[in-house]
Please model this.
Amino acid sequence: MGAFDVSGGLTLWDLAEAWAERRGEEDFLVSLLDFERPEEIGRIGWARFVAQTGELRGRLAALGVAEGAVVALALPNSPPAENPWISRASSSNSGAAMPIAP
Model:
């Protein structure tokens, strides 16, 4: 690994799992649920995020998303849109993800 390796050779998924183990219910993502009511803040902890993303990774694999597969997801800019992005990017079969604005 090069001088700029900040992951210690771990995959994105390995890093997410490690953070979930260490940080559990600490915030992964904080967002406004409704712009009309800014006092309503949504929070997703590391453990919940990793559990949901792991489930999605399994579903994608069950659908046949394998090495070299191209997957396009058009999702609104929202907190739930993070799970598919990370699940594809953290695939053990060299997945890649690129967010695009629909």
Notes: The mean pLDDT is 76.
